[in-house]
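seq as requested:
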Amino acid sequence: MIKLSTILCALLTLMLGSCAYDKADEIAGPKVPCTTPEVVSYSASISPLLTQNCRSCHNAVLLTGSVNLEDFSVIQKYIRSGELMGNVKHLPGYNPMPQGGNKLSDCDIELLQKWADAGAPNN
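struct tokens:
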């Protein structure tokens, strides 16, 4: 014979398991639009972003993962291959970067993407 406590436990589990809110956008509020410059400058926007988020590990001294993001030709290589954007966007099959840290903001990713889409110029 099934105990009453077993039935109550099962019902409680079902009720708690169904308490979900599937409209995360409504909880978070409206998305704030990003304001990116008309032309994204490597020296004014991208290099400082890389310094702030990437170069503490990926530099000429540490060379974490054999990647030196102080070298512009290396940056272009990773932009052209799609690896840099795949990593910062945390896409499947890529190494989520920054490793062990929070994903870059949507606006930072949008800025990087706009620069990459423009051919990643050294401007």
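Residues 7 and 81 are 56 Å apart (CA to CA).
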